[in-house]
Design brief:
The complex is a heterotetramer, with two copies of chain A (about 325 residues) and two copies of chain B (about 350 residues). Chain A has helices spanning about 5-20, 45, 60-70, 90-105, 130-135, 150-160, 175, 210-220, 240-250, 265-275, 300-305, 310-320, and strands spanning about 5, 25-30, 50-55, 75-80, 110-115, 140-145, 165-170, 180, 195, 200-205, 225-230, 235, 255, 285-290. By secondary structure, chain A is of the alpha/beta class. Chain A folds into two domains: about 5-180, Rossmann fold (3-Layer(aba) Sandwich), CATH 3.40.50; about 195-320, Rossmann fold (3-Layer(aba) Sandwich). In chain A, the strands form three sheets. A seven-stranded mixed sheet of chain A has the order 3-2-4-5-7-6-12, sandwiched between helices. In chain A, strands 9-11-10-13-14 form a five-stranded mixed sheet, sandwiched between helices. In chain A, β6 (about 140-145), α6 and β7 form a beta-alpha-beta unit. Chain A is globular and about 60 Å long. Chain B is of the alpha/beta class and about 350 residues long. Chain B has a single domain, classed as Thiamin diphosphate (ThDP)-binding fold, Pyr/PP domains (Rossmann fold). Chain B starts with 16 loop residues before the first helix and ends in a 23-residue tail after the last helix. Chain B is globular, with a radius of gyration of 20 Å. Chain B is about 40% helix and about 10% strand. In chain B, the strands form two sheets. A five-stranded parallel sheet of chain B has the order 1-2-3-7-6, with helices on both faces. Chain B has a two-stranded antiparallel ribbon with strand order 4-5. Chain B has eleven helices and seven strands. The chains are: A alpha/beta (about 325), B alpha/beta (about 350). Chains in contact: A-B, A-C, A-D, B-C, B-D, C-D. At the A-C interface, α4, α5 and α10 of A face α4, α5 and α10 of C. The complex binds thiamine diphosphate (2 copies) and magnesium ion (MG) (2 copies).
């Protein structure tokens, strides 16, 4: 069986959406003939003429345009060239797309693809994780697929939802992550998945960190530790129930995120578990994030900036000792 | 109360010049009457937040609304576009309900004052952040073009002199031009952005000089002159309809009120008020109506009376209606069932 | 003695800064002759000609301009007309100002004033609390003065810091909050203050919510409950030590914020206490935030959207019962 | 290694036309040499992230840098401005250290490639988000004006055709115009933004048509012609120096490389490559040097050799230097002591 990568799944989902739903179109810089900076739209303009459209370098207008198109019944998929550049579309995302349904009763089903996260050498402006920023605002859905199958299924579902979705795809996974098929057994957006069962501690992760957490769990398994790894899949809505049920089994929680440490997904996860599942905890819930500096360029620094197999493992060991 | 008489253009129906002039003027009178009432209500503490009126801009805004066809065209109004809204066919009740926070209004008390619309009826609801309207309307038009339903529809949107400084406005204009969309972008240069005079806002001779830089046609008009506005906007709208791409119209006038009704606009020097920019378009228009034979003084008086009655009725209705009830509101920002935060 | 309001203190601090430090200038829409939308700069242009400058409606450029001016040794104070409009200056704030020192070694001492928070009738776009958004990013200092004296002292200190500061001033407090003097006994930015001592529970609040929390504490005092109220003062840096010391005394924690519920200050506070002070807690830490919708226009909805005396009191009672 | 020979203009020192032409050409040669080397290093896997070069834009960029005076003027370069950096006086070591991640470079391994600068020496370090440079330089100039130290300093910044679509660029141009700042804004219309051709980026005849809309002077130049660039940029810089406000210069040329060295630019049609836009400014300049009597073929060959030596030395030095050590880095984004998060 042929291997498919995470980016293949993203491309394929867009292909299938264009094929199945005539309301879908794609808008973004260089998405047309060129097929996008990461080739996520390769070949699509040729196959679906007029529906894969090159945008000027105008992120604010791109989002506003998508909101307008959605009002008129379309389901735009907007590609940001890098998640980092959505900062200039931030206002339209949080204040126009995010408020539209609540204010007017008219939903705006737009999907904004955010190529997120670091790869060595990408530096401060091509490496950011922006999920926490968007999840803070009402009205936005924020998903963070970690597997090839989720990359496919969650993009399909994102475009089908009536709400604006920030689809945070991790650049590190694009070509590194491979699977036999992109058709997994899908869960709906809003449900987390236990990707590694265990009973000694729960590690909650999302996006690329799921794989680091899994590796840590596997290594610790050789020492007899059974670590349960939960892949959040979407950070808003956040599936508190699955996390809580896991902590109920393990009594210990580590939340792992690749974003900056102040606030964000790990704070939200710990805060929920501490508030609503305090009695389930046998030890202080822990978290590990990237460092509180811009994402550094040099691979030496970059590797030490984000959580790694080693630092996650150390954090789990510490958690088990508490 | 009886539904207010429809003042907007019918799709398909040809309209004579005289009819359009009359319709514009009546919308101006209605807007003027409504806004005077809203201002009083605000000053009496009956409206919270703020009231933003279009005094001095009734001709420009009304003329734009009158050139558009409800049910086909798109109108993205800004804060001084009561006359345009009325001419486009927004009901007075939509306005009074939103200002007075009626739960029966289009915004259900969730948003207020000029932050209202009916997006699916070609009347998007602005957010406060200035400049984004152009791109939003562009998206609406592009959607229709993809759907094959664009026909001869036109999208129109307004901006003040101040809004032209936003990055959003620039990006939208450029996008509209690249997509060659049937749009009319009206810039009301009313000499001030809140208290800021134009010389602190831009350094070009006229904002119309920006049109060429986007590759779009530019038009200038005296915004105090109703007939001139109707002519210039009429031809801009027709040019857009005819596939000539986005049209920029820059009108010169003066805001004849404060920025909002809390503001006395003391920063506007008497010399500016006395200049031709400070002409009251309502007075100019009234003269144009009678001297041009569009209406007699008697007809105008009757229209005023009708407007007063309609406004009174719309205010009374909205005032009797309930505000939103926090215990019954679903507090849900998501259209997808089950996505609401349980907080 | 004459009364001074919170907005008086903000104006006075700017006056004193202009007077004492020739590197300070003010830039913002309508800040000049008009004195600003909230009159925070009234009279300053006249007194300090050339140093209080009206800006075009260009928030992105305003922040970029400030960064440039700071590089050249100035200490700009930027007034956003409303915090909500900083969303269009977001990119320059987080990606230029926030990264500048780390990347180049050159500090950019800019102070950005954000008129924040709700008043009845202000609606979705003139009511936002944006502290969590900025605190998430490295390199930015985020302060949230709750008193007249802090409004003064913290603005003075903000302008003196070498880092970019988001000075979140609460519009509700502008004229409502009065004091005999604006010269309090100042604490440095980064230190929280215990504003009401107690032993049964700790309520951590900031900005306008400090006053709601205080009223709740005072009412509960009549029933014999001694509630300790901590005013964070700055949310980044966040004074974990003071919060932890308080929880050590009380064993119970409620975090109160006026921002949207996902993430944010309350999540960060609870997360830190749960991680580092788990053993201090006698009950699950709780939090209360605004609701997860845009801030509604109508006063009925607005009052039910944010935490109030009543809802905070109820939350404290609940906490005491756990 | 010996410090590279200074190639920039001295403040105050009058420079002959011939000297400036020679200095420009030498900077072009140096930049060309450096960038060829960087490209090889990237392809050999010795540079991570990416390499972005200015092939085809050496004349434009070099001419701009040569018209500025280090120690007085401000230069905010963009991604294709190696020649301008060199002409302005940035050392080769700053470039190689940043690309190779040396901890001794100006960015200390924290940022890379073209994201480098020495802000306090008039050379700000770009962020990736396009368009913000104009406003940043405006702030620098306004600061000096307030400090009374502006003198005859000029600020220059560059943008590509694509960057003109950003809201940030618009806001910056407008701000600079309102403040009447001594600025030169150079737009390198190299026909593509990454793969996007200009017809998907703007709809005006020429981007220079935007100047009038900001109330600034506009200039056009053939960006493949070094002498023309020097003339047009020279007079733009002088006009800005003379207090005539911001000057916009739009150059036409073609990017003679991929967007980055990972990109083969297969989307550029052969017809465009063969058009006058596709002329190689290096070849044109060499002819101009010899035919205009600015240099002999021998001198040029010597300069090339010198450039190769200098580049080799700068690369070798940077390669021998340590990268940043995560255990020694202070991981501190705050200048204020004690504000670092303890994570
Ligand atoms: C991005 C943004 N910044 C600031 C504001 C605050 N604001 C509201 S209206 C206004 C002045 C607008 O002036 P102009 O565009 O000339 O319109 P006018 O009020 O004159 O009709 C300002 C600054 C805003 N709404 N949006
Ligand atoms: C706001 C923003 N959006 C997207 C990008 C990604 N990006 C980097 S360079 C580039 C193309 C720039 O084209 P142009 O301005 O013409 O410069 P050129 O590369 O042709 O020199 C794009 C889209 C960016 N840097 N900033
Ligand atoms: Mg105006
Ligand atoms: Mg280009």
């Amino acid at each position: 069986m042929a291997e498919v990568t995470y980016i293949d799944a993203i491309r394929e989902a867009q292909h299938d959406l264009l094929e199945k739903d005539e309301r879908v179109f794609i808008y973004g810089q260089d998405v047309g003939k060129f097929g996008g900076a990461f080739k996520a739209t390769q070949g699509l303009q040729e196959k679906f003429p007029g529906r894969v459209i090159d945008a000027p370098i105008s992120e604010d207008a791109m989002i506003a345009m998508a909101v307008g198109a959605a009002v008129e019944g379309m389901r735009p998929i907007i590609e940001m060239q890098f998640a980092d550049f959505s900062s200039v579309g931030f206002n339209q995302l949080v204040n126009n797309a995010g408020t539209h349904f609540y204010r007017t009763g008219v939903p705006v089903p737009i999907t904004v693809r955010l190529p997120s996260g670091g790869t060595a050498g990408s530096g401060p402006f091509h490496s950011q994780m922006m999920e926490a920023i968007y999840a803070h605002y009402p009205g936005l859905v924020v998903v963070t697929p970690a597997t090839v199958a989720d990359a496919y299924a969650m993009l399909m579902e994102s475009a089908a939802l009536d709400d604006p979705v920030l689809y945070c795809e991790h650049k590190f996974l694009y070509r590194w992550l491979k699977a036999d098929t992109m058709k997994g057994d899908p869960l709906p957006i809003g449900q987390a998945r236990i990707v590694h069962p265990g009973k000694h501690a729960t590690v909650v992760a999302y996006s690329a960190m799921v794989h680091e957490a899994l590796r840590a769990a596997e290594e610790l398994a050789t020492e007899g530790w059974e670590i349960e790894v939960v892949d959040l899949r979407s950070v808003k809505p956040l599936d508190t129930d699955t996390v809580m049920a896991s902590v109920a089994r393990t009594g210990r929680l580590l939340a792992v995120g690749e974003a900056f440490p102040w606030g964000g997904v790990t704070a939200e996860v710990i805060s929920r578990v501490a508030s609503e599942g305090f009695h389930l905890l046998d030890a202080p819930p822990q978290r590990i994030n990237a460092r509180d500096t811009p994402v550094p360029y040099h691979p030496n620094l970059w590797r030490a900036h984000r959580p790694t197999l080693e630092s996650i493992q150390a954090a789990i060991r510490n958690l088990l000792s508490l | 109360m009886p539904e207010v008489e429809t003042q907007h253009a019918q799709v398909g129906a040809a309209e004579s010049w005289e009819d359009r002039v009359r319709r514009t003027f009546r919308a101006m009178v209605t807007a003027y009457t409504l806004e005077s009432k809203l201002s009083s209500l605000y000053k009496a503490g009956k409206i919270v937040g703020g009231v933003y009126i279009g005094r001095g801009q009734e001709a420009l805004s009304g003329a734009l609304g009158a050139c558009l066809r409800r049910g086909q065209d798109i109108f993205f109004p800004l804060i001084r576009d009561q006359a345009g809204r009325t001419a486009f066919g927004e009901t007075l009740l939509d306005a009074t309900r939103t200002y007075l926070g009626s739960v029966l209004g289009p915004m259900r008390g969730r948003d207020g004052n000029i932050h209202r619309g009916r997006p699916r009826e070609g009347l998007p609801a602005m957010i406060s952040h200035l400049g984004g309207g152009v791109a939003t309307v562009s998206g609406m038009l592009m959607a229709r073009r993809m759907q094959g339903s664009l026909g001869t529809a036109v999208g129109a949107t307004c901006a003040g002199d101040g809004a032209t400084s936003t990055g959003a406005f620039h990006e939208g204009l450029n996008l509209a031009a690249v997509e060659h969309l049937p749009m009319v972008i009206v810039i009301a240069n009313n000499q001030y952005a809140y208290s800021t005079p134009t010389e602190r806002q831009f350094a070009c001779r006229s904002l119309v000089d920006r049109a060429v830089g986007y590759g779009m046609a530019g038009h200038e008009v005296d915004g105090t002159d109703m007939l001139a506005c109707l002519e210039v906007l009429g031809s801009a709208v027709e040019a857009a309809r005819a596939g000539k791409g986005p049209q920029m119209v820059v009108a010169s006038l003066l805001r004849l009120s404060g920025h909002g009704e809390h503001d006395d606009a003391a920063y506007v020097p008497e010399s500016v008020r006395q200049s031709p920019l400070g002409r009251d378009c309502m007075t100019v228009a009234e003269t144009q109506m009678t001297e041009g034979g569009f209406a007699t003084a008697g007809e105008i008086a009757a229209w005023r009376e009708q407007a007063a009655e309609d406004v009174q009725a719309a205010v009374a209705t909205a005032q009797q209606e309930p505000g939103p009830d926090p215990f019954r509101d679903d507090w849900n920002a998501y259209a997808t069932p089950g996505f609401r935060e349980q907080t």
